[in-house]
Amino acid sequence: MPGSIRVGSLLGIPFYINVSWLAIFALVTFYLASEWFPMAHPRWPLELHLLSATVTSLLFFVSIVLHELAHSVVALRLGLPVRSITLFILGGVAQIAREAPHPSGELVMAAAGPLASFALSALFAALWAATRELGDPVQSIAAWLAIQNLILAIFNMLPGFPMDGGRVLRALLWWATGSGRRATAIAVALGRTMALAFIAGGITILVLNRNGAFLGAQIAIVGWFLHMAANGSVRQVRLRDALASYTAGDLMSTGPLSVPMETPVQQVVAEYLTPEALQRGMAVVAGTELRGLVSLHDLNRVPKHQRQSVQVRYAMTPVSQLAMVHPLTPALTVLEEMDARNVNELPVVSGGVLRGIVTRLHLLRPLETKRRFSW
Ligand SMILES: [Zn+2]
User: Fold this and answer.
1) In angstroms, what is the span from residue 118 Cα to ligand 1's centroid?
2) How far is the CA of 258 from the centre of ligand 1 (A)?
3) What distance in angstroms lies between residue 110's CA and the mean position of ligand 1's atoms?
4) How far is the CA of 164 from the centre of ligand 1 (A)?
5) How far is CA 221 from the centre of its chain?
6) CATH 3.10.580.10 fits domain 248-369
7) C-alpha 206 to ligand 1 mean position (Å)
8) Domain chopping of the chain, boundaries
9) What percent of the chain has pLDDT over 90?
């Protein structure tokens, strides 16, 4: 997500805070300090309102992170890589690199988040009950957090994809019908309908009730976001479907540009640099054997006065440090490998010989030919 700052890691998963989160954190804290706590305790001094609001707000976002962590822990147990957890304006999101391989995995992974929120709600309710004698401010904080975590759990269990509830529904349909594709189609259709209902409902509140303008806008924005998310997941599922029957060898471009490893850097710059090579880099070979890849960036690092004498093999990224795929590697695995390593192309190698290069653009090609298929 653009505008995200890494602030640490949780169970080895990089944890990010998006700048947009500061807005929602400020808003929630402001609401608590100016409405919730003053209404419940009009006699408290301003500082106590502010302090309680900040603590409550922070604990609320910790609760959201715990919800995402619950999804992530199950994902890791299933062997699915979790790329990041990010707090942003609409809550939290865990980026899980792959879909669960079977419906039961999907079911547990999707349900884990709302279950964590239910558990937190129960925990804060117990704290509320236990501190009845102690009194405030702990009790008020616990009460608000118990209610919010309950709302969070229920809201996330709404049965529209890609919300948790929609994923649970999809897993159940997948299990019942045996078809992941049909299950997705139904869950996504429900998700879109729900999103549109949110937008319509939000606008209706906005128009009809002047006091509910803020709530109306909020509901409409959430609906709009859900609609985008539903469309995004359809695109992803389509891409995965389209790629399912291909391998790296089917999609790669063959005859990539290669240069013998003894060639001086100066000569590589003068003779080999084509627009394609500038974009993707060149294979450095010994005969037909791949020894490394060299990019314009690598070449530029060689000082100008040394380019006549230094051979390209000393400027390249050696094979030992390269991610490579085999011609028979499934296209879906290639895509996941690119995502995991944050690269846009991978050399396709078999028997130590470079067979081609596969890029993200190549991976989109099967999608083009299937464009007429729609849900
Ligand atoms: Zn969730």
Assistant:
1) 12
2) 47
3) 7
4) 5
5) 20
6) yes
7) 28
8) 4-157, 248-369
9) 26
